[in-house]
């Protein structure tokens, strides 16, 4: 029986996962399994933070300040006696929220703008893409720092600043997909049938861009978390006592020589999270790009 044919059980249900499917290819890819495992671990840690953290992340205990890692405090304590493990665990929740909100804002706005520009073309396309080129001409971190400084130091403003810098990536990718999709027969049929441009864009163009947009979104989450942590590190993002990884490292760097554990553990979690999302994004690209997987789907 060919690999592409699904086997049915006695009760008529289909076997899962189907050999040759995207999920099957992902499960056979060691990088996808490793990256997905890291992302799943971080997501579960963020969701279950109130139950996983052994202490209140903001509970002060000056009698236990700057203690080394021990059975009572696995990651040690900070200068206020707060448990670093608890703060790192809750920091995963903050980072996950940052990543999701930025992807929703930047991905939604960028995909809509790029798909509209690619489908409509003409002057609208030129104006939109020139604006995106201007934004891309600045390094994302420098532009995010400037925007966050102008808006004022806070986690909300940092999220808005980071989202703004990520919009052009989604816009350029969506425009490229739209330029290809608008020449297909089903788009021409919809146009001849009298459907409006907004209807065609939202019902046909954007849905057909989602596969590649999802891959870019996965790759962008890691960069987003890193940029947001950088803003918090220099005081433009999350403000104390918010348990955010970049903010913890910013304070902990003062104690690096004598209390190495303070900045080390949140730094390791940043690295692990960024690497996990990048590995998963690369694996998704390999699966969804037929040029890379040899047309196996």
Q: Could you please describe the fold and organization of this structure?
A:
This protein has 13 helices and no strands. It has 297 residues and is mainly α. The protein has a single domain (26-58, 69-181, 209-293), classed as MetI-like fold (Orthogonal Bundle), CATH 1.10.3720. α4 (84-120) runs parallel beside α7 (155-181) and α4 (84-120) crosses α9.
List the helices and strands and how they pair.
Blueprint: H1 22-28, H2 30-47, H3 49-52, H4 84-120, H5 122-136, H6 140-151, H7 155-181, H8 185-192, H9 197-205, H10 210-233, H11 245-252, H12 261-288, H13 290-293
Helix pairs in contact: 2-4, 2-12, 4-5, 4-7, 4-9, 4-10, 4-12, 5-7, 6-7, 7-10, 10-11, 10-12, 11-12
Name the descriptors:
single chain; 297 residues; MetI-like fold; 13 helices; disordered N terminus; elongated; mainly alpha
CATH architecture assignment name:
Orthogonal Bundle
Strand composition percent: under 5%
Q: Pairing-aware structural class of the strands and helices? A: mainly alpha
- How large, in whole angstroms, is the Cα Rg? 23 Å
Helix content bin: 55-70%
Main sheet properties: none
Morphology = elongated
Summarize this entry quickly.
With 297 residues, the protein is an all-alpha fold. It has helices at 22-28, 30-47, 49-52, 84-120, 122-136, 140-151, 155-181, 185-192, 197-205, 210-233, 245-252, 261-288, 290-293.
């Amino acid at each position: 029986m060919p690999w592409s044919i699904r086997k049915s059980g006695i009760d008529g249900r289909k076997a899962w996962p189907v050999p040759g499917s995207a999920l099957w290819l992902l499960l056979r890819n060691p990088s996808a399994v490793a990256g997905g495992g890291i992302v799943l671990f971080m997501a579960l840690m963020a969701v279950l933070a109130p139950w996983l953290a052994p202490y209140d992340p903001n509970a002060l205990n000056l009698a236990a300040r700057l203690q080394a890692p021990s059975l009572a405090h696995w990651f040690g304590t900070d200068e206020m006696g707060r448990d670093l493990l608890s703060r790192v665990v809750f920091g995963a929740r903050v980072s996950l929220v940052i990543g999701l909100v930025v992807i929703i804002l930047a991905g939604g706005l960028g995909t809509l703008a790029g798909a509209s520009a690619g489908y409509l073309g003409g002057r609208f396309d030129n104006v939109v893409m020139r604006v995106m080129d201007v934004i891309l001409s600045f390094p994302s971190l420098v532009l995010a720092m400037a925007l966050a400084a102008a808006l004022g130091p806070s986690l909300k403003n940092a999220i808005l600043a980071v989202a703004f810098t990520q919009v052009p990536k989604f816009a350029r990718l969506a425009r490229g997909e739209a330029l290809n999709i608008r020449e297909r027969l089903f788009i021409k049929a919809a146009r001849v049938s009298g459907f409006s441009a907004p209807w065609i864009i939202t019902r046909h163009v954007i849905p057909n861009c989602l596969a590649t947009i999802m891959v870019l979104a996965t790759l962008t989450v890691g960069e987003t978390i890193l940029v947001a942590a950088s803003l918090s590190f220099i005081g433009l993002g999350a403000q104390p006592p918010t348990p955010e990884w970049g903010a913890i490292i910013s304070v902990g760097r003062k104690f690096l020589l004598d209390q190495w554990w303070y900045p080390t553990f949140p730094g390791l979690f940043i690295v692990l999270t960024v690497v996990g999302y990048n590995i998963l994004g690369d694996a998704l690209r390999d699966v969804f790009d037929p040029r890379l997987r040899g047309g196996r789907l």
